[in-house]
């Protein structure tokens, strides 16, 4: 028996039956010709191989959200968006850099919910000429306000070396370890934060 086990004893194993966490892979861009579906699909394929959570792609453009505050709020997409976020325990944001920040579409979608974001975890996968790093850092500030715990590991993809002609996604193999490390943290923190809700 180890020194510490002798000192502290062995904790009784608790039988906890937990259902799998639901993690949404949120596509941050909505423009025609966007590359985010390719990146989101790549993340989902890696994630599905892990089998440690239910992963699904969540496409902002499916919800036809109006610009916040410009309508009476009765569009069904607004309620559906909140309901979808409410079903999720954690997120992976697919973030593209637009003028050194996130897209207006993603910010608008984020602003359309509040409690549905709270006490959940998120990872960020970004792309751009400098790996989308500036957009990702802006997103971290926004997530803090919404009580979303963003994890440290952050895969950054280059428009020059991970895409052909900036449009066909061909990720370098070196990103795989980083994606899995990011998912490890998202799953761990999503599970931990579930106990707060
Ligand atoms: C309005 C706009 C602004 C952009 N600004 C930046 C920028 O500041 N930095 C950068 O690295 N890439 C910038 N880009 C390039 C995008 O990162 C690139 O087009 C990327 O593919 C966009 O993601 P999407 O295809 O999913 O829409 C910009 C693209 C657009 C459309």
From TrEMBL:
It holds the Pfam family FMN_red. Gene3D superfamilies: 3.40.50.360. Residues 22-151 form the NADPH-dependent FMN reductase-like domain. It comes from the Bacteria. GO terms for molecular function: FMN binding; oxidoreductase activity. InterPro entries: Flavoprotein-like_sf, FMN_Rdtase-like_dom, NAD(P)H-dep_reductase. One of its GO terms (cellular component) is cytosol. Belongs to the azoreductase type 2 family. This is NADPH-dependent oxidoreductase. It comes from Paenibacillus rhizosphaerae. The lineage of its organism: Bacteria, Bacillati, Bacillota, Bacilli, Bacillales.
